[in-house]
């Protein structure tokens, strides 16, 4: 039987600790006005010291399983896109699998930075479509507060912590729900503009590398901005073309929540009315792989996005990586 992969349920988790732009003014030479006008961010959540990526991922996953009405035992595959894993290995996916008691599933992490959610959807989609697995739990937990240089005003004001989860399975025959198109791409040539260089085999963690701050995120924001605008616009057009759809056929657009100016430029390229854009980065900042999933879950739970709606996701991140997807909810 030809399987039609669908989103069965969503969940998210945000740490309780709210850090406002004004709070950051006492830490670095910045202002609430600069952060809001340049990025659209007003506040972000920061994980407690004892919370790791898997600790954020587990409650998000539980919420998604409950929403989907799928038991942990029915999950065959756990995919975890994150660039702030608990540790290099074992995977954060295995830690989440264990904490949820999902025995017998395959579990692995993927590294696609802020595009991780769409890369994860793409993997889940093809595994279900090929009949390799039946139900996939995709969990995107990020704890960027651990890898930020809190003395660098050009990056520390932009990111936040949080987790998103989604359960995917197959629809009943004849349903219009499911993925209309998917698109993922990378360009390793520009990988140097957004990095966390130390801690791997190329540059092992040493007192010297820590001294130089090479274990922390570094970004050429201007260069990332330029390429992100171009790639996100073209990804959005690509998935519309692949699905043989027009902007009018899309009910909601959820872009990676990095910068309202980037989101607005994608919106203008698509000639999409503002009311169709789901934006929450004012509250959470850039939560990397989790950002699209948190926005989707919030919008489903507050009743904006409902059954039968067609949603476009558009992402961009380190790697460089980018992609988009169009999906109709069951
Ligand atoms: N507060 C005050 N001033 C600041 C701050 C700050 N927090 N940060 C930078 N500035 C200063 C700069 O030093 C610069 O000063 P100068 O002109 O004296 O040199 C001035 O503000 C302007 O800096 P720009 O970098 O030109 O500011 P820009 O308008 O480009 O905005 C930003 C910067 C917000 C980082 C933007 O470039 C951006 O959003 N880039 C994309 C980031 C992104 O999308 N990342 C997604 C991928 S993330 C991932 O995959 C992990």
Secondary structure elements and their pairing?
Elements: E1 5-13, E2 18-20, H1 21-25, H2 32-39, E3 43-45, H3 53-68, E4 77-81, H4 92-100, E5 106-110, H5 116-129, E6 136-143, H6 153-156, E7 161-170, E8 178-186, E9 194-195, H7 207-211, E10 218-219, H8 221-243, E11 252-255, H9 260-270, H10 281-284, H11 291-301, E12 310-317, E13 321-328
Parallel strand pairs: 4-5, 4-6, 11-12
Antiparallel strand pairs: 1-7, 2-3, 6-7, 8-13, 9-10, 12-13
Helix pairs in contact: 3-4, 8-9
Acetyl coenzyme *A (ACO) is lined by residues 30, 34-35, 38-39, 113-114, 153-154, 157, 194, 221-222, 224-225, 228, 258-259, 262, 286, 288, 316-318.
Keywords:
33% helix, alpha/beta, four-stranded mixed beta sheet, 2 domains, 330 residues, Peroxisomal Thiolase, Chain A, domain 1, five-stranded mixed beta sheet, 23% strand, globular, binds acetyl coenzyme *A
Structural class: alpha/beta
As for the number of domains, it is 2
The CATH superfamily of the largest domain is Thiolase/Chalcone synthase
Please tell me the overall pLDDT.
96
CATH architecture of the largest domain: 3-Layer(aba) Sandwich
CATH fold annotation of the largest domain: Peroxisomal Thiolase, Chain A, domain 1
Task: Give the topology string: H per helix, E per strand.
Answer: EEHHEHEHEHEHEEEHEHEHHHEE
Query: Unreliable runs, pLDDT <50, ≥5 residues?
Result: none
Number of helices: 11
What is the CATH level 1 assignment of the largest domain?
A: Alpha Beta
Number of strand elements: 13
Strand order of the largest sheet: 1-7-6-4-5
Query: How much is the radius of gyration in Å?
Result: 19 Å
Bound molecules: acetyl coenzyme *A
The termini sit apart by 19 Å
Characterize the largest beta sheet: strand count, sense, and whether it forms a barrel.
Answer: 5 strands, mixed
- Overall 3D geometry? globular
Helix-residue proportion = 25-40%
| Quaternary structure of the protein | single chain
The proportion of residues in beta strands is 15-25%
